[in-house]
């Protein structure tokens, strides 16, 4: 699919140039913003069990829960642009007009914004529980290792293989209307978020404000989407290995 896309785009350099240029600018800006946020929110609150609760899950002074959620979703969306834009580019490049490609991109990232809102609701609820119940907080290192084991198992599953096949086969929408392209982006966003559920779990377990973890997950997503199909299973095996090490240390 990627080879066909690039071959088709070679006959339309006047359209491909602005798309690639804009995508490159978005990628660089979002990657720089992600790095800045990860550095500015480094550290956190020491918790029972010898781990640190990230500042991303806590309220700033005079900040409401809604304000904290909006901040999180903004950070999450910028991070997703940095992580998902490279593997998304072949689909966008298959759309014949830049304006329609932009609409598909908006539809795609709107799904990730909703995903981020759900992540914050769950993560902040877990964080409040950990703050109120020290016994629960002490279990977090074990839970982190277990989450990585589950994330790796998802990567090795037949369900993951089916979701990845859908993502790898996604091309241009059937229609040329604005609505068709926007909905195509939404559908691809849903497929992609399902496909990436294991890696997103690994991202959250490893620490989404850790730039090394973010970079590793971004490379994993691009590799399994654009590279040989066996890479998804290799990534799953690596995540399971890391989870086993984390679990052994916690125990």
Name its key features.
2 strands; two-stranded antiparallel ribbon; 11 helices; globular; disordered N terminus; single chain; mainly alpha; 251 residues; 80% helix
Describe the model.
With 251 residues, the protein is mainly α. The chain has one domain (2-250). It contains eleven helices and two strands; from the N terminus they run H-H-E-E-H-H-H-H-H-H-H-H-H. The chain has a two-stranded antiparallel ribbon. A hairpin with a 3-residue loop joins strand 1 and strand 2. Helix 6 runs antiparallel to helix 9 (197-206), helix 6 packs antiparallel against helix 11 (230-250) and helix 10 packs antiparallel against helix 11 (230-250). The protein starts with a helix and ends with a helix. Mean pLDDT is 87; it is low at 1-14.
Order of helices and strands: HHEEHHHHHHHHH
Overall SS class? mainly alpha
Strand order of the largest sheet: 1-2
Query: Could you describe the largest sheet, including whether it forms a barrel?
Result: 2 strands, antiparallel
* Tally of domains: 1
Number of helices: 11
Q: Approximately how much beta-strand content do the residues carry?
A: under 5%
Average pLDDT value?
Answer: 87
Approximate shape: globular
Helix-strand blueprint:
Elements: H1 2-10, H2 13-40, E1 44-47, E2 51-54, H3 65-93, H4 98-132, H5 134-138, H6 140-156, H7 158-169, H8 178-195, H9 197-206, H10 211-226, H11 230-250
Helix pairs in contact: 2-3, 3-4, 3-10, 4-8, 6-9, 6-11, 7-8, 9-10, 10-11
């Amino acid at each position: 699919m990627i080879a066909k896309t690039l071959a088709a785009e070679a006959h339309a350099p006047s359209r491909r140039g602005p798309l690639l240029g804009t995508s490159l600018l978005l990628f660089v800006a979002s990657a720089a913003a992600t790095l800045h946020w990860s550095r500015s929110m480094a550290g956190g609150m020491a918790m029972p069990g010898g781990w640190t609760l990230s500042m991303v899950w806590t309220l700033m002074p005079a900040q409401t829960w809604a304000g904290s959620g909006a901040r999180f979703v903004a950070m999450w969306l910028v991070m997703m642009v940095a992580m998902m834009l490279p593997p998304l580019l072949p689909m966008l490049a298959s759309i014949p007009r830049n304006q329609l490609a932009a609409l598909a991109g908006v539809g795609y990232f709107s799904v990730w914004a909703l995903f981020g809102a759900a992540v914050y609701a769950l993560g902040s609820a877990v964080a409040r529980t950990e703050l109120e119940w020290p016994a629960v907080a002490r279990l977090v290192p074990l839970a982190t290792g277990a989450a990585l084991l589950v994330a790796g198992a998802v990567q090795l599953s037949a369900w993951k293989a089916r979701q990845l096949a859908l993502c790898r086969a996604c091309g241009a929408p059937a229609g040329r209307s604005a609505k068709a392209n926007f909905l195509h982006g939404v559908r691809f966003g849903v497929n992609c978020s399902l496909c990436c559920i294991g890696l997103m779990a690994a991202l959250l377990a490893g620490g989404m404000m850790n730039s090394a973890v973010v970079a590793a997950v971004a490379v994993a997503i691009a590799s399994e989407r654009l590279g040989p199909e066996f890479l998804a299973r290799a990534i799953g095996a690596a995540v399971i290995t890391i989870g086993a090490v984390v679990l052994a240390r916690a125990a």
